[in-house]
Amino acid sequence: MAILIYITSGAAVTLLIIGVYLLEPERTKKFYYRGDKYQTILIRIMRPLIEFFAGFNEKLNIEKLDRKYKRRLVISGNPYHFVQVEFLAVKQIAAIGGAVFGVFLVSGVNIHPGAIIVFGLLAYFLPDLWLYDMINKRKLALSHSLPFHMDLLTLAVEAGLTFIIAMDRVVKSGHTGPLRDEFEKFLQDLRLGVSLRDALGGLADRTDLYEIRSFTSALIQADKMGTPLGDVLRIQSDIRRRERFQKAEKLAQESPVKMLFPLILFIFPAVFIIILVPVMLKFMAEGM
Question: Does the domain at residues 140-244 carry the CATH identifier 2.60.40?
Fold first, then answer.
């Protein structure tokens, strides 16, 4: 049985490689610019294999998956500078690795051969979980840093600077993080000739955060109506700070409920063991 599994797996990988070479996949380097700031050793080692599968995925031209992953990668900040076909290649490589791990388990531990498919599917969806985690962490960082940056922006505008110059000062003096990076991209869009409304819309789309979308909508409305930006920024800053305090109060109120499960599962059994075991041992020693 183990020999048959090895032969089947080897034949599948061989056919896949032959098929990819017959299709003559194109390299995807020319489609984008990739920086080296976030390229880890593992990514650099796997880069030729990722590009290999990415060229194959480019031939498939799956538009639905392409749009879905493009949106998610943009919202996550895309620290590894993956394009959509490369992220799909990472999923495929993870699935192959999971299937190989399942093969070793089947041959070594003698479990059911279906474990190969199970581990392959689990590994295929692991990059999606990583991407969702990146999105949630980035949104949390954006939400935490927004009130501080808005205060700086408000002070700069009220001091007499224009909105663009004030934003540039915030980028230069603000804390390092995803929000500062997004403000910098916003300024780059303006320097490239993008209108203020479109640049603000792009900022809202890249972050996909309610607070920033509300902030950009207020600025676009103020630009249309001719409302002083200082007043709008002050109101938005107060709203964001109030929302942050309300979130903190909500989390504080939820903490007792969240502590209930580990308390029942871990603390109470330990307390009962400490209290009742000596009593039971004493009764057993006395023959009761």
Answer: no
